[in-house]
UniProtKB/TrEMBL annotation:
Residues 1-285 form the Deacetylase sirtuin-type domain. PROSITE patterns: SIRTUIN (PS50305). InterPro entries: DHS-like_NAD/FAD-binding_dom (IPR029035), NAD-dep_sirtuin_deacylases (IPR050134), Sirtuin (IPR003000), Sirtuin_cat_small_dom_sf (IPR026591), Sirtuin_class_III (IPR027546), Ssirtuin_cat_dom (IPR026590). The active site is at residue 125. Its main location: mitochondrion. The keyword Nucleotide-binding does not apply. It comes from Mycena belliarum. Zn(2+) binds at residues 133, 136, 178, 181. This is SIR2 family histone deacetylase. GO terms for molecular function: histone deacetylase activity, NAD-dependent; metal ion binding; NAD+ binding; protein-malonyllysine demalonylase activity; protein-succinyllysine desuccinylase activity.
Length: 285
């Protein structure tokens, strides 16, 4: 973790203190210190598969058993992981600041387990612990069973992420099925090309517009934590916040090279380079 300059620390701390409306956009880097791999970069593979191609409707249509085993593995990882100090620091800030909203792109539930008040966080890419029917309106929330179905049970010595252990063939009938109509269930997450949940977007948009605020929709500060900010519409909230006056503070292991939203910082913004689990406890207290 790089040193934080005293000037940056002072100006940020002061601005945070005087901020009443604070928006945060968090991504996979927030959970990296909990041992959950990120999407882009070295961690972005499961077995021989690129996570970005597994997290698609096309992959699920082609091989639902493969995609389900990928999600079953990630459910397991999230369940055995512990929230780290960044999740806790964010949750503490959310409790202190009434005008705070975190938009989470993560589906691992670690913010929630760190005690983040539900009214101050909105997940926009779904949850590893929800499934929904591919045919009817059935949705199942908060199912923490591991494995999700008996067919995903593995012998003790087998690591599902290691391609040297062949995946066992699983018949469609043994995959998670809808209790209402018997059709295939799918992970209740947002894949590329799919729309975000209408209620999730509506809630974030209403917060950004300041619908419940007497004095309008100014946003003082936007925290951008552990996200490449390449995926829309989530990354668009950085621009929305800026348009409402927000100064942007980015917390990231590295300065994004790709032309993501965080590589367009402006005068008055901050870039804090390092591990979010070290930076947030220091800077958000
Ligand atoms: C650390 C760290 C440490 C590491 N400390 N930091 C406008 C413009 C262009 C394209 C589009 C657009 N609007 C829509 C699109 C298409 C598409 C899109 O955005 N494409 C872009 C990639 C170009 N968007 C969609 O398809 C969205 N749907 C949609 O818009 O519907 C309407 C529509 C339909 C059809 C056509 C057009 C519009 C849906 C996007 C859903 C994204 N889903 C996923 C999978 C979720 C389920 C799952 O997890 O399996 O969400 S993809 C994946 O990316 C996942 C993540 O939430 C998301 C963001 O990734 P994140 O969190 O930023 O992770 P990384 O790995 O990218 O970055 C980690 C960062 O942390 C790095 O910067 C590290 O340096 C850093 N880091 N360790 C601090 N310790
Ligand atoms: Zn159904």
């Amino acid at each position: 973790t790089a040193e934080i300059s005293p000037e940056d620390r002072a100006s940020f701390t002061e601005h945070l203190k005087s901020s009443t409306r604070v928006l945060a956009l968090v991504g996979a880097g927030l959970s990296a210190a909990s041992g959950i791999p990120t999407f882009r970069g070295a961690g972005g593979f499961w077995r021989e598969y690129d996570c970005m191609t597994l997290a698609t409707p096309r992959a699920f249509a082609k091989d639902p058993a493969l995609v389900w085993q990928f999600y079953n593995y990630r459910r397991h990882c999230a369940l055995v992981a512990e929230p780290n100090r960044a999740h806790v620091a964010l949750a503490e800030l959310a409790k202190k600041k009434p005008g705070f909203l975190a938009i989470s792109q993560n589906i691992d539930g670690l913010c929630q387990r760190a005690g983040h008040p539900p009214e101050n966080i909105q997940s926009v890419h779904g949850s590893l612990f929800s499934s929904r029917c591919t045919e009817c309106a059935y949705v199942e929330h908060d199912n923490f069973a591991d494995p999700l179905v008996p067919a995903f049970e593995l012998p003790e010595h087998v690591d599902a992420a290691d391609a040297k252990f062949p995946l066992k063939p699983i018949p469609l009938s043994a995959l998670p099925r809808c209790p209402a109509c018997r059709a295939l269930l799918r992970p209740d997450v947002v894949w590329f090309g799919e729309s975000l949940a209408v209620d999730a977007v509506a809630r974030v948009d209403a917060w950004v517009r300041g619908d419940s605020e007497a004095d309008g929709a100014k946003i003082d500060l936007m925290l951008v934590v552990g996200t490449s900010a390449l995926v829309y519409p989530a990354a668009g909230y950085i621009h929305a916040a800026r348009a409402r006056g927000a100064r942007i503070a980015v917390f990231n292991m590295e300065q994004p090279e790709e032309e993501g939203s965080t590589s367009r910082l402006k005068e008055g913004d901050w870039f804090f380079q390092g591990d979010a689990s070290k930076l947030l406890p220091e800077l958000l207290k």
